[in-house]
Amino acid sequence: MHDIRWIREHPDEFDRGLARRGLPAAARELLALDETRRAAIQRSEAAQSRRNAASKEIGEAKKTKDEPRAQILLAEVAQLKTSTPELEVQAKAASDKLDAALAQLPNLPLPEVPDGKDSEDNVEHHRFGAMRDYSFTAQQHFELGEALEQMDFATAAKLSGSRFVVLKQGVARLARALGQFMLDVHTREHGYAEIAPPILVREHVPYGTGNLPKAAEDMFVTREGFWLIPTAEVPLTNLVREQILDEDALPLRFTALTPCFRAEAGAAGKDTRGMLRQHQFDKVELVSITTPEKSRDEHERMLSCAEEVLRRLDLHYRVVTLCTGDMGFASQKTYDIEVWLPGQGAYREISSCSVCGEFQARRMEARYRAKSDRSVRHVHTLNGSGVAVGRALIAVMETYQDQGGGIAVPDVLQPYMGGTKRIERPGA
What we know:
About 35% of the residues are buried. The protein is an alpha+beta fold. The protein has helices spanning about 5-10, 10-20, 25-65, 65-105, 140-145, 155-160, 170-190, 205-210, 235, 295-310, 360-365, 390-400; strands at about 125-130, 150, 165, 195, 200, 225-230, 245, 250-260, 280-290, 315-320, 335-340, 345-355, 365-370, 375-380, 380-390, 405-410, 420-425.
């Protein structure tokens, strides 16, 4: 959520930020709504103030036995008693209209974010490792998994429809191992506190992170009004909603391994084979809550924490800075980590690390008290995948495949696999 006072003081800068996002100017319309809101509030407050003053004047008139004046004041108070609630309703309606307009607008990009329309305009930052050479034609993960009889899309379709999978035996255990390994790295070495959050949340929670109302079509909602989380960012970031934290308590760093649910409403025809784009998937999420002065350093730190997972798995990847046209709704700046998939012969996103400034904190009313002057300010929030378990599974399967169709288990995962070094077809 944007600060209307800041827009009032920097309308041209605000519109330039929206233009970089490919959106039309909005400051004039927002300021008109703000003017209507402030006028409505002023009328409401003036009526309430006059009602209070008139009530006191009635007492004074009674004391002086000025009955005619008392009767006039009583009539005025009766009229104000009727009109004041109406004015309060008008003020609230004007405020709600402004909030609704602000809620539709994305965060503004930081100055260093590259301009562009889509993923073709993203800028590569750096790479790790190199593409492996194979003496055979590398297969895609779903070809490997089906040949191993441990990745079953046909049965999943009978149970749930398209974009689901049933994992079995060694591949299922490998997925579990990846999640546990990631959590251990982030909690034991990177200082993140493990959280087991709800995965069903009320509407105000995804509103707080900016998922609602803009991305409603890409989320699932139950009959009872619970929203299924598209990422653990949603409940983790909201852990600090409606609080005033002490600056000494910051930064707060949370991590969670949860199922995530996405409708993939805009992905018709994309990645229909395999596990790349599922309605349900597991992901390890990283969330940081910090001060404005430290949020950019925290962003770089979060990226390095996510990278460390892939480095220890010895997976080739690259890091790109997303351009203005490819950034998420709540983000000021985003790094994507794209892992190399030998079977597909392409880089695919496995983590996005974003700094959101105070954009989410304003929607959640998440604040802290500064040590320097004891003033209350909005925190800055950050989130990142540390990393997506399903896509890490795909990358491991395709990277560590051998000519016989088996999957070598990376060294760091073998302790989580009971010492298993290779996944192969049952009975092989």
